[in-house]
Amino acid sequence: MPLSTSLPRIAILGSGSMGGAILSGLVRPEVDVDGGITVTNRSREKAAPLAELPGVTSLALEDRPEANREAVDGAAVVLVAVKPAMVPDLLHEIADALAPGTIVVSVAAGVTVATFEAILPAHVSVIRSMPNTPSIVGRGLTGVSAGTRSSDEDLAVVRSVFETVGEVLEVPESKLDALSTISGSGPAYVFYLVEEFTRAAIGKGFTPEEADLMVSQTFLGAAELLASSDKTAEELRIQVTSPKGTTERAVAVLEAAGFERTFTEATDAALARARELAAPAPS
Asked: Known binder of ligand: residue 15?
């Protein structure tokens, strides 16, 4: 992220895990949101703590049924971060409250640009995004895809929004579901590997605490090494894998078990499911 970022007024409709992660980036001291940020939640219990954040107006639908319409009034960027099934009703609710030139960003998995553009007026632009959970700690990767009515300037604004929580990759919408199987679902794959390595360590006599330290530090260190090195992951793996050594023997077992094929099949299955979720519901 640049040393300082200036953004126009923003509304976040739904501040659950993803909406909340993005909000955490936007309230950092080096980010200036002209006009502030308005967020909405269904309950006052969830809304109350967010009102304590600098520059944030937090509204609860429980208290103000028109909160979503109030939030988008005057907002230059509107992030729709509610559950996917709630999106169509929400878009119908706010459609006539959006000013010309507003950028509406989908943060809802599986909800296409076409769905947004079919409901929203022609005078707003739509951009679809796919953040991932490491955004919560500022290490996210967000895929963004232009809509048919969005401009390069609109994309630049949205890129700046998501750069507050990590890196941004612009891709055609046709690739966004595939991106979700790698960066979106990817943290779960990593956590799954951590689980299995931890079980293996405990099985070899280490305490759960020792196993947790060994495994988490190994994954963290390997990730940092990869990020800071000019070598590829393959080159770093070969560097660790001494000929006829222990690592070579372990890698041979993984290869014999079809590790590469398993990853391909797993991500293919995730992609198939993403396309099922994005398909229009039968009428």
From this structure: yes
Task: Determine the residue type at 158.
Answer: V
DSSP assignment of 243-271: TTSHHHHHHHHHHHTTHHHHHHHHHHHHH
Is residue 16 a known part of a binding site? yes
Using left for φ > 0, alpha for ψ between -120 and 50, and beta otherwise, residue 55 falls in left
Query: pLDDT 10s per residue in the chain (283 long)?
Result: 566 899 999 999 998 889 999 999 999 999 999 999 999 999 999 999 999 999 999 999 999 999 999 999 999 999 999 998 999 999 999 999 999 999 999 999 889 999 999 999 999 999 999 999 999 999 999 999 999 999 999 999 999 999 999 999 999 999 999 999 999 999 999 999 999 999 999 999 999 999 999 999 999 999 999 999 999 999 999 999 999 999 999 999 999 999 999 999 999 999 998 888 777 665 5
Q: Is residue 178 a part of any domain in this protein?
A: no
Is 231 annotated as a binding-site member? no
Question: Does 19 show up as a binding residue in the annotation?
Answer: no
Query: Are residues 153 and 64 located together in one domain of the fold?
Result: yes
Determine whether the annotation assigns residue 214 to a binding site. Answer: no
Residue 183 marked as a ligand binder: no
User: Based on the domain organization, do 29 and 104 belong to the same domain?
Assistant: yes
- Known binding residue 18? Answer is yes
Question: Residue 14 is encoded by which pair of tokens?
Answer: 């739904």
Q: Domain check: are 126 and 17 in the same one?
A: yes
Terminal C-alpha separation, the chain: 44
Give the total number of structural domains in the chain.
Answer: 2
Q: Containing domain of residue 206, as a range?
A: 186-277
* 144 assigned to some structural domain: yes
Q: Is 27 annotated as a binding residue?
A: no
The CATH number of residue 268's host domain is 1.10.3730.10
Question: 210 by DSSP, 3-state: which?
Answer: helix
Q: Is 68 annotated as a binding residue?
A: yes
